[in-house]
Amino acid sequence: MVIKSKINFESFLIMYLVTFMLSIVFPLTIYDNLKDILNNFKIVSILKAGGLLGFLIFIWLYFYKIHVKVFITEKNITFKCFFKSKQYNFEDLNCYFEKDEFSRYKNYKGLFIVKENKIVERISNFDYSNYEQLKSKLEINECKKVRCNFFDLIKVLFGFEAEISTKNCR
Length: 170
Prior knowledge:
The chain has four helices and eleven strands; from the N terminus they run E-H-H-E-E-E-E-E-E-H-E-E-H-E-E. The chain has 170 residues and is an alpha+beta fold. A hairpin with a 2-residue loop joins strand 6 and strand 7. The longest helix is centred in the first third of the chain and has 31 residues.
């Protein structure tokens, strides 16, 4: 039996609207800064345009990352995105751990999957409405004693692997 993730519509709508609005506002601001740069060269205008462009790319990466579908079967877990998918056999995974993810109005749970002392994927109840069902179908051990810093969790949020220290885990 395959368990498929269900997107949390509220969080998806919020991220979609924020991404859409910033995709309109930031290019207009960057265009306005570029007009100033062409008329009068100022390093501050270049830095401002570069910062806005970098932040817009950052938002698009996050928007891309939350469009991951999770499929759990008896032997493996698959993460499908727009252009690629990753599949992990439960036997190859070490463990998972949970961390609280804080927001302004509500706290969420994030489940981080560990393979060879690296966080390889994240499942959050901010992104998925059936988080508890997905968690219950994982065929790997939970590790309670994990040391992980905030920046490593941010790296995972944007699709990068992060090394961690686990104690008493498989």
